[in-house]
Amino acid sequence: MDRLNPATGESLDPVPDDSEEDVEAALDRATERFAEWKDVPIRKRQQLLENAGEVLRDNEDEYAELMTKEMGKPLASARSEVQKCAWVCDYYAENAADHLQTERRPGPSHAETSVSYEPLGPILAVMPWNFPFWQVFRFAAPHLTAGNVGLLKHASNVPGCAEAIQEVFEEAGYPEDVFQSLIVHSDRAAQVIEDDRVKAVTLTGSARAGRSVAKTAGENLKKSVLELGGSDPFVVLDDADLDAAAETGATARTINAGQSCIAAKRFVVHTDVYDEWLEKFVAEMDDLTVGDPTDDDTDLGPQAREDLMDDLHEQVQDTVEAGATLELGGEPLDREGFYYPPTVLTDVPRDSAAAREEVFGPAAAVFEVESEEKAIEVANDVHLGLGASVWTQNLDRGERIAHRIDAGMTFVNELVKSDPRVPFGGVKDSGYGRELAQHGIEEFVNKKTVWVQEADASEEDVHTTNE
């Protein structure tokens, strides 16, 4: 795996790929380990996960620096990401056993009926570069603790992170091969998904990648969870707190240099407050510092790769050519590395690139609407449905609108975020299935019905058939 430091454009030491023989051996080891790991008491698995959280905290600076070097995340943000990974470990270390407790179910008087949650086996996780630790830990923390074993195919520009994550679990005391990183390119993923030793797959990535993974998994009758892209609306109503909506809006658009599936991307603003909010929002965006990600004063680091910066700039240019007005930014910065400034587009045509596509960088598309109904229409006018944010001082109004937006998650007076305590996922082309909370840990288990009765029980159940 060749690597570049996106802040400087300089080459980093490459990480050797795994050969086909290496992958075969890893799959064999995963299968063998699962046979033992699934029978380890869940309380023991929870203790190991708690240990992993401590390893993360003890090595926070090392892991943060690695993320910054490989994909350009500012150090402060990278440290926060490591801390969040430790949090998800804490959450499932405390709650996994309760989430997977066998449930007694109603049944006939002569039988005991229950549902148990049993692991499936080796699970493949295909993960992206933008949150190179967090995306992996929100997969691994629940599903290893449920008794599965994990195989990671990480993004090609963060192989060092992939290796470091495997080392976290090893240092935490997990048995060897409970979690393995496969250092392979994307063209090898389908072959791994098809392998009979792999029982399910989860992917975080683009809709295009999601369709490919879903097709391969479906053809092989394997469970899949897809967390795909987003073009999240940020709706500012006429009774919103404009200072808060502008400040949080700028943060929501530019976290991780705008490279987040749940970043606010389309700002839908009521005409009665449009001018005032826009002035505040542009000022907030303009006040952000773009620079060296190793500098603690930096708000935005570089885009993770040069081609990603080029794609972002092409979307901005296409939108301006379609009739949008450029209020701020709009040109790559003239410096070493792959830097793009905070950018604001207004008068955005509804059929332009910034309106129809996911814009993966710090460029905001702003739409003016004359009513609440129009705001909901514009918010829903996209093929993606991951998250949404609604701003109003009337909480009943906010909750009502939240239910009318086509998204897997809607936040009122808050930016969209992932939290171990609540499920995460989308609808439409943003994918299916859920991560995190109890809903997430249940995705890769066999929800097994167990019916137990005496052999000579004779009570007839008139509702029973053989189908």
UniProtKB/TrEMBL annotation:
Gene3D superfamilies: Aldehyde Dehydrogenase, Chain A, domain 1 (3.40.605.10), Aldehyde Dehydrogenase, Chain A, domain 2 (3.40.309.10). Keywords: NADP, Oxidoreductase, Plasmid. Residues 2-450 form the Aldehyde dehydrogenase domain. Residues 1-24 are annotated as: Disordered. Residues 15-24 have a biased composition (Acidic residues). GO terms for molecular function: aldehyde dehydrogenase [NAD(P)+] activity; succinate-semialdehyde dehydrogenase (NAD+) activity. It comes from the Archaea. CDD domains: ALDH_SSADH1_GabD1. InterPro entries: Ald_DH/histidinol_DH, Ald_DH_C, Ald_DH_N, Aldehyde_DH_dom, ALDH_GabD1-like, GABD/Sad-like. The keyword Lipid metabolism does not apply. Belongs to the aldehyde dehydrogenase family. This is NAD-dependent succinate-semialdehyde dehydrogenase. It comes from Halorussus limi.
